[in-house]
Specification:
Elements: H1 6-14, E1 22-26, E2 39-40, E3 50-51, E4 55-58, E5 69-76, E6 90-94, E7 106-109, E8 113-116, E9 119-122, E10 132-133, E11 144-146, H2 154-162, E12 167-171, E13 175-181, E14 185-186, E15 197-198, H3 201-211, E16 215-222, H4 226-238, E17 243-247, H5 258-264, E18 268-271, E19 276-277, E20 283-287, E21 290-295, H6 299-318, E22 327-332, E23 343-352, E24 358-362, H7 371-376, E25 379-383, E26 395-400
Parallel strand pairs: 5-6, 13-16, 13-17, 14-15, 17-21, 19-23, 22-24
Antiparallel strand pairs: 1-12, 2-11, 3-10, 4-6, 4-7, 5-9, 8-9, 18-20, 20-21, 22-26, 23-24, 23-25, 25-26
Helix pairs in contact: 1-6, 3-6, 4-5
Length: 403
């Protein structure tokens, strides 16, 4: 099978994917959930004109001249309105958040007044509308302020609460099951035997999936046998996973059994080789509604492929309005040779020059097993297939890695 271009592979992963069903959740459980419906205000904010400062509510015409003296006929505090009407030559003591009384069209701040018992002297001329927040200045009942597909921030939750929504309709979180394969793998803290390595891929994959709002299911490490690999795939189905991620066993060696196990379970494989570096031996297929991504075993390849393919799939299932990574422009920090037929994702550090220019500096060693370089990188520098030699200072495209 010919190597599939990255764009075609991503299109295959996302083909036919629809957001998961909606569910209602209380506001305090909605952080970073994705809205399944538009949200409209149930009230006007503020519902009446309110004072923006502590001071005196006045008629601007009565307080237009310095040393105007007004009679104080009452007081307004937040939650305690003044029920009368302010007439000529009158003022009401008012505090921030207090409802502006009838007849008033300005507020003079307390620093610009001198209080004397039941009267107040104005030391700064009033201006119509000054220090008053009009009714509806924030929003009005019926205004749609949060849109379907929004991943809710803490600021969005405050807005939803102010709009009088105690709960919100959000898409169900995707369930991502992660299965590692390989006799050579031992868990962190163990003492590796001869030829064994410490398992690391899954910790990054679980964290990446959770950061995107998914729930994760740890299926452990399967031995390099068809029976063990098949059992792991079946556990993913039984768990109700929306996505199965395998790591390792995606190549063509005698002990790389993932593709055979997936095929034997009835998974229709869309591809198993991609024209990208790192990560050529990546697989994708479906089993009913469960999407399957078979990642390479090398830790950098595993992470880069998960970032490029698993993350957009999680976003699509979550109902996000924006699912693709945003490419940014920068300049190269060093010379690069010509590229071959594979799209390249170079691990790079990001520097900001004094003039505001972003500089992507590829790390010197790009081997797909080097986790230290991956951890030090801030971006993936993207090079198109057959890109010509490029000199330092040339424009380039990059994808920011999560922080």
């Amino acid at each position: 099978m010919a190597l599939m271009p990255v764009s075609d592979a991503l299109a295959a992963v996302l083909a036919g994917v629809e957001p998961l069903p909606e569910q209602m959740v209380p506001l305090d459980e909605a952080h970073h959930r994705v809205l399944a419906r538009d949200v409209a205000a149930r009230r006007t904010q503020p519902p009446q004109a309110m004072s923006a400062m502590d001071g005196y509510a006045v008629r601007a015409a009565d307080a237009a001249a310095i040393d105007s003296r007004l009679t104080v006929i009452g007081e307004v505090a937040a939650g305690r309105p003044f029920t009368g009407r302010v007439g000529a030559g009158e003022a009401v003591r008012i505090f921030t958040g207090g409802v502006v009384p009838d007849g008033v069209d300005a507020v003079v701040i307390q620093e610009d007044t001198i209080a004397d018992g039941k009267s107040v002297t104005i030391k700064e001329a009033a201006i119509v509308g000054r220090h008053i927040r009009p009714a509806g200045v924030d929003f009005r009942e019926g205004d749609v302020l949060l849109r379907k597909g929004t991943r809710l921030t803490e600021r969005d939750l405050a807005l939803a609460a102010a709009m009088n929504h105690p709960q919100l309709a959000v898409c169900r979180r995707p369930k991502v099951a992660i299965l590692a394969t390989g006799d050579e793998l031992v868990m962190p803290g163990a003492t590796p035997g001869h030829g064994q390595i410490v398992y690391s891929n899954g910790f990054a994959l679980h964290a990446l999936a959770r950061q995107e709002g998914a729930e994760t299911i740890d299926l452990g490490i399967a031995a390099d046998t068809l029976a063990a690999t098949t059992a792991g795939i079946r556990r993913a189905r039984e768990s109700g996973a929306d996505i199965l991620i395998t790591t390792g066993g995606a190549s063509v060696g005698d002990h790389d059994l993932v593709q055979q196990a997936l095929t034997d379970e009835g998974i229709a494989m869309a591809f198993w080789k991609i024209a990208m570096r790192p990560g050529k031996p990546m697989m994708h297929g479906r089993l009913g509604t469960m999407g399957v991504i078979g990642l390479p075993g090398n830790p950098v390849s595993s992470y880069v492929c998960a970032f490029l393919f698993m993350v957009p799939l999680i976003r699509a299932l979550s109902g996000r309005s924006v699912i693709h990574h945003h490419r940014e422009r920068a300049v190269l920090g060093r010379d690069l040779g010509a590229n071959d037929q594979r799209e390249d994702y170079l691990r790079a550090r990001l520097e900001l020059r004094d003039d505001g220019t972003l500089v992507a500096l590829p790390v010197s060693h790009q081997d797909s097993s080097l986790l230290a370089n991956l951890a030090a990188a801030q971006v993936l520098l993207v090079r198109a297939p057959f890109a010509p030699q490029a000199e330092a200072g040339s424009p380039c495209e990059m994808l920011r890695l999560p922080v």
